[in-house]
Amino acid sequence: MNQPLLKAVNVKKVFGRGDNSVTAVKNINLTINKGSMIALKGRSGSGKTTLLNLLAALDQPTEGEVFFNGQIISKLPEKQRSHWRRTHLGLVFQAFGLIPLMSAYENVEFGLRIAGNDSKLNRAQAERALEWVGMKARMKHRPPELSGGEQQRVAIARAIAHQPVLLLADEPTAELDSRMGLQVIKVFRDLVENHGMTVVMTTHDPGIMEIVDHVIALEDGEIVTESNQSNS
Ligand SMILES: Nc1ncnc2c1ncn2[C@@H]1O[C@H](COP(=O)(O)OP(=O)(O)OP(=O)(O)O)[C@@H](O)[C@H]1O
Ligand SMILES: [Mg+2]
Questions:
Q1: SMART domains from the entry (predicted)?
Q2: Residue 18: left if φ>0, alpha if ψ -120 to 50, beta else—which one?
């Protein structure tokens, strides 16, 4: 099943103009297949977040194109890109971004509500997402009553409740110790194996490299190696 889901062709991103301009990524050519789990690694400033934001259509390339299922997404106007994101994309960040006064369930359900989803389905979708990340039993708890790893799992549930095919995560384990980080990565792996998702994450964590299918290494904004892991 090597069907391409995401594709970047000759992508370049320059921030600013003239003497102050910074080329954050360049010469980016990559294909991410459906049902795979990819890690982007590289030193601070190597362009990981920039590339992730371009793949998420949160930002647009200065040159080149990003395709999703064969359709150009990078050239769409913001309104259509935002519709695309709400439909197909889940996003997870380093700081979990949960609302402390809401329970885990309410956080996930609220995410669906502000995205304008059909409220009749919200309860079932929120509970299903919490079940997928192993947090259903604790869904009445508020974030301050949960461990960091548990909070991140709730944030993942919020990101996947609308069942996107693509989940992008920017350093999702950076705030966690290695044991909890591993727990979170195993949740991603399970979403890929059992729930049809494709995951792209940035990371500094060497332990994660063994669990993903491919590691893409960036250096000064360019891809320097793309390694195939044994289980791909
Ligand atoms: N909005 C922006 N305006 C100007 N320069 C930017 C902007 N965003 C990123 N950059 C620059 O682009 C380069 C790549 O940044 P990016 O955030 O993608 O790196 P990163 O690999 O995610 O780093 P880290 O590991 O620290 O998160 C850096 O030199 C950064 O300063
Ligand atoms: Mg970054």
A1: AAA
A2: left
Tokens describing residue 46: 């190597």
Residue to mutate (ligand 1; options 17, 43, 49; most atoms within 8 A of CB): 49
Ligand 1 and 22: CB distance under 6 A: yes
Those residues of the chain that have pLDDT short of 70 are 1, 228-232
CATH of 4-228, one of 1.10.8.10, 3.40.50.1370, 3.40.50.300, 3.40.1190.20: 3.40.50.300
Q: Is the dihedral of CA 129, 134, 139, 145 positive or negative?
A: negative
- CB-based contacts of 134: which residues, under 8 Å, 6+ apart? 153, 187
Of 11, 17, 44, the residue with max ligand 1 atoms within 8 A of its CB, to mutate for a pocket test, comes to 44
Closest-CA residue, ligand 1 atom 5, reads 15
Q: Tell if the pTM clears 0.90, that is, is over it.
A: yes
Residue whose token pair is 């979990």: 96
Q: How far apart are CA 154 and CA 109, in angstroms?
A: 11
User: Token match 């700081």: residue?
Assistant: 95
Instruction: Give me ligand 1 centre to Cα 41, in Å.
Output: 13
